Amino acid sequence: MLSEFDLIKRYFKRDRPAAPGSRTVLGIGDDCALLAPTPGKLLAVSSDMLVEDRHFFAGADPFLLGHKSLAVNLSDLAAMGAAPLGFTLALALPGADPAWLDGFSRGLFALADEHGCELVGGDTTRGPLNVCITIFGEVAPGRALRRDGARPGDDIWISGTLGDARLALAACRDEAGIDRAALDAAHGALAARRLHAPTPRVALGRLLAEGALARAALDISDGLVGDLGHILAASRVGAVLDVDALPAGPALARQPRALRRRFTAAGGDDYELCFTAPVAGRDAVLAAGAACATPVTRVGRIAAQPGLALVDADGAPLDLGLRGWDHFA
Amino acid sequence: MLSEFDLIKRYFKRDRPAAPGSRTVLGIGDDCALLAPTPGKLLAVSSDMLVEDRHFFAGADPFLLGHKSLAVNLSDLAAMGAAPLGFTLALALPGADPAWLDGFSRGLFALADEHGCELVGGDTTRGPLNVCITIFGEVAPGRALRRDGARPGDDIWISGTLGDARLALAACRDEAGIDRAALDAAHGALAARRLHAPTPRVALGRLLAEGALARAALDISDGLVGDLGHILAASRVGAVLDVDALPAGPALARQPRALRRRFTAAGGDDYELCFTAPVAGRDAVLAAGAACATPVTRVGRIAAQPGLALVDADGAPLDLGLRGWDHFA
Lengths: 329, 329
Hints:
Phosphoribosyl-aminoimidazole Synthetase, Chain A, domain 2; four-stranded mixed β-sheet; globular; magnesium (chains A, B); magnesium ion binding (chains A, B); homodimer; PurM-like_N (chains A, B); alpha+beta; 2 domains; 9 helices; CATH 3.30.1330.10
């Protein structure tokens, strides 16, 4: 049986030279990790906890779970415009299963290495499967993409596409309203990939922050309508959202309009950025998207009047009865 | 029913001016918290995950659990000699129980306020009860109390007392070997307090680091023998430990010698500091302990020869068959 310390050593402690630009002075194996912050930068910190049967299915592929656990945290850094530095991993496991640990750690490190984000410490214990990552990044003072900076007249933008993750979940649950013929094997796989292996928009977030292009931003994890509501509340503004302008993922794009509207506007698990930017900056936003190969789409406008109005392509009001995800509702 | 956002607002978001010396630029309510690191300091980071039925009993007093969840993290900062800055809290809850949340948050904030350590962000979700805290502190470069600095000839020191937490656990489990008459109500309460409300030795750790008094340190969470083994391995040294010199807690001190030896040497849940220091610094170590009203006791010596030798008061070898706690053993 693998001991706690062998487990850490075998799967999580990597004996190799620090990456160029590493700020890690002391990594795994002491009471604390030690990081040397870049002078003049702010430290951005976020924690996300993923629970079995809540955020992922029991028996989920460990490689994909390793990827997703870090991806949702990188997405929070992206939404702040911060450059990734490192992360801690706290892991409760029902047992020390070598095959699971091997897959999980490979998925985790594949994404970590892509973003130069080092695992610096953490905790392992026995318990119901739970993955808690705390991530650290850096951003210049005054450049962070906060939720409270949206102003009336700003465009509302979305990165990438929405709703394919929700479609994949709906397919797993065999929900009504899905066009099964349109969701063939290839498109089912596309949608599943968005659910299980989201792409954090780190490069786009950094370009938006460094160029001072966006006024407010967040990442869409609980559905656009609910998450945009946080920007509106923090900025004390309202918005008009063109539901038919929302970019649907390639699998969802083939589905009936009612499903498309619901899943793009309030799907959940999208991990795309929603941000606001002044009208004068449209070309710069498009250029930032192009520079990091991330599509960006204008989907509405910030208004002085509080409240979120959903409209269709003709500007007519839509009541879809939507709201964001609430873990305790 | 309390929503996720109401829960955070009611129990965890505090509307009050930042404390003097706060490094928090942006707290709860955005994608990330933003901290402004003190120029020239290193950032110390640690995560601990507490799982029901593993680290605490089902039905544990939520006030004490709030205290302990933060205390074990502060203890990691103490072991590094770092000054607390702030922490994130990720919480999986079976449900949103107002009485539990009220007690937990009060216990958490009472200790946080004592140490000027701000809650800056986190996550809440539904799931089997799990408390994951990541804590941040600061320490001057070259002053951090690492595990790899012990040298042959160093004294081994212990803060406070050992074993009362383990005695309380033994009493709960009705383990053999306890002198029940000696463990009366008053001493039972003393022991229980050490188990449920440990005192992190933050002030002592900072004095040891700032004065460059200790060469190596860690906090004792899994039992002294196992934890001291980490210092020995990291420093590539050995040690002789005088088991009869180990300071027993007031409840354990009244127990039979066999129990006293076992529970001081390998109890667990002590959250005291174990550190090594040069012989020439004995007076300075005693003065540091006195300055922060934390007893410090010399209990052994670092040796060049690898291995940990346990001896009794006469220097005769003792084989107690002890080892540290392993969550996966």
